[in-house]
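Morning!

This is the sequence you dropped in the shared folder:
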Amino acid sequence: MGTRNISHRAYYTGKYHLLFQTAVILAGMGGLFGLLGWMIFGTTGLVWALLVVLLLLLSTPRISPWMVLKMYRARQLLYDEAPGLFEIVSDLSAGLTFRLIHSCTMCQAA
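The structure's back. Tokens below.
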């Protein structure tokens, strides 16, 4: 599947639309967290909740996916171990290439 050429205007319109959606979702989550803090601990809880939200918003983009995979002790799956999973991911990715699939033994249900 080849690459599609889109106009700069369409690209930036889509980019800003996604940025707006992300901002709305994060603001909603922060608002709910602040409301929960206020309901449980009053004004002090609201301030602490908003400080935690701010800290998370500032630190999350700096967390490497590899750090998270290492934290959960995930390991890379080989095609021979799960060919059906690789076929499903290939179908769902609509022809895009994917590099790695990881398995996490800590995350599996008991």
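Headline: The radius of gyration is 20 Å.

More detail when I'm at my desk.
O.
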